[in-house]
UniProtKB/TrEMBL annotation:
The keyword Transmembrane applies. InterPro entries: TMEM14 (IPR005349), TMEM14_sf (IPR044890). Its main location: membrane. Belongs to the TMEM14 family. One of its GO terms (biological process) is regulation of heme biosynthetic process. The chain crosses the membrane at residues 6-23, 30-49, 80-98. It is found in: Membrane. Gene3D superfamilies: Transmembrane protein 14-like. This is Transmembrane protein 14 homolog. Keywords: Membrane, Transmembrane, Transmembrane helix. One of its GO terms (cellular component) is mitochondrial membrane.
């Protein structure tokens, strides 16, 4: 399996968003959450780069991030940063489900 460059780019985008939140607004929670989620997504991209890929960590983190940021987007109505991260996370979920479908441990499926 090749390196999950898109996954690493997604992780870097989330981490950079947290850093930008800290730089622009002095938000320490934004820094902590962005770097933590970015690091977890980076580990997930590393797992996806293995043979065989293990997509559950990146998939689960993307679902959590889409839910959190989607709810913030709905409350605030602001596209940046919540709406953008929600959209990117949903795209990452779809990509993981399509690309790594055969590696997901689904009930009733033999591994």
């Amino acid at each position: 399996m090749s390196t999950d460059l898109i996954g690493f780019l997604y992780a870097a985008t989330v981490a950079a968003g947290g850093i930008m939140g800290y730089v622009k607004a002095g938000s320490i929670p934004s820094l902590g959450a962005g770097v933590a989620f970015g690091a977890i997504l980076g580990v997930g991209a590393y797992y996806n780069s293995q043979d065989p890929p293990r997509p559950l960590l990146q998939l689960g983190t993307s679902v959590a991030l889409a839910g959190i940021m989607g709810s913030r987007w709905q409350r605030s109505g602001k596209m940046m940063p919540a709406g953008m991260i929600c959209i990117i996370s949903v795209a990452a979920i779809l990509r993981n489900l399509i690309t790594y479908n055969r590696y997901l441990p689904l009930p009733g499926r033999q591994q």
